[in-house]
Amino acid sequence: MTTIICAGGSGTRVLEAVIHLCAAGLGPASLRVLVIDPDAANGNTTRTKALLSAYMRCRDVFGGKLGDIGFFRTELDLLESQDGVSGLKVWNPIGTNKRFSEVLNFDNLAREQQDIVHLFFTDQELKNDLDVGFRGHPAIGAAAMSLLTLHRDERPWSQLAEKIRMDVTQPAGSRVFVVGSVFGGTGASAIHPVVRFLRSVPETNHDLLKVGVAALVPYFQFRATNAAGAGAREMAARSEWFALATRSAAEFYNYVRESEQKDWDFNAMYWLGDDSLTEVNYSTGGPNQENPAHFVDLLAGVACLDFFETEISTKACYFAGPRECGEDGLKKCNVLSWDDIPLQTINRDRLRTKLLQFFLSGAVHTGFLNPLLNDDRLDTAPFKVPWYFQRFAVANDPLTTPAARAQLKLLAEFFSMFHYPWWRQIHDSELPRVRLFNKSTLVENVTEQTTVDLYRLSNLLWPDQPGEATMNKLDRFFTDMVDLPRNLGSANGVPSYLAMLGHTAERFIQREYAKQKEG
After folding, report:
1. What is the C-alpha separation between 142 and 147, in angstroms, rounded?
2. Residue 82 pLDDT more than 70?
3. Is the bond into 218 cis (omega within 30 degrees of 0)?
4. pTM, full prediction
């Protein structure tokens, strides 16, 4: 069984990437999810919760019903909280305490102990209100996270521990991936304590628990505004501190790795970042802290899924670095192409093809077929749409019922409200640094949803080729739909329709993108 534990805002954005990869059929059969963040109202967490909810609704409809297409196949275990309410739970390491002094129980400490605390923390840090997180102060977070073992008998940790113990009784064992930044507050303070806790869980078969970590180094920056009050200014996170915090973290983990005390608890560690920092809006936390998706999130998500499939060696340590190029008149640039994505086990062509297959299926559905299937005239003249007539009308399996249309709408919303906007943000740069999909094919419609230009179905991958804009490719896609074999599986209704889209996209890609693959 596999588990992902995401700490802080950066960790939550990686979870967002993992969900999109799972939607495309690249995830494991099942995945446990746990998020750690004292800032539960964080805008990125809210966005990820909405994505996760949309994914699970789609999985209820399509999961396990599409055969080898595999879209939405990953079952998510969200480790329900004590109240039993479903949905993503965010574990708050400070509990109901609002001030850092309350976390430390400072007022009840002996005078000598209070003096020791003052050696490490200022008065302002002790008074700091933690309702929006640790604000880039990992020392505060480390103190809070050091108390993790006190919560081992509480949900969600008790649930997770019990499931890991069950996992290690099976030959496949348990794989846990922990992700967070090493330059901020929550992620930097959570990684090591969480991994130490995980190592204490199995009572037997300790070697069957494999733990991987994605340590994110700086890839964004911001310009802090003048926070009100001297105390607020002192506690505000500052991106100019990121480099120093990262160096300290790297030195710490290098020391642990080389230590003779054998304190290295990781089976693999991935260091991921970007030396061309993206400018983001400054926020002290809460709903306004909603950084856009970044290709580092994607790399960490791929690293997570790759770790789940890789045969891990002892003390493995992986890192992804930039690549220089001199094309397109750029003297020096760091770019991300399909060949730059670091992989150990996942087949590169499979990764590219599955993502393109999902992307293309959604493009045809949102841009043409969903409006068609919502047209009431289809019921009176289904023979005008050959693929529909052959597969659904004759079989008395219409896609025009209210229930079917609700499922079709759910699928369209997943693409236009979540999947395509996410890819658009990843490719959002003045220079074409991310060279995966063709950003120019992603367009925002009048309802501020993102769709795909149907004239560009054979040019969905980078680079942009304006001369390939034609609706003939859409006609070829429909011809492929008609020519598909009838025995695509036992699914019916909308799941059968999505399976058909996936198989058609696969055939379309093999023909239309073969030359691009060779190049």
Report:
1. 9
2. no
3. no
4. 0.88
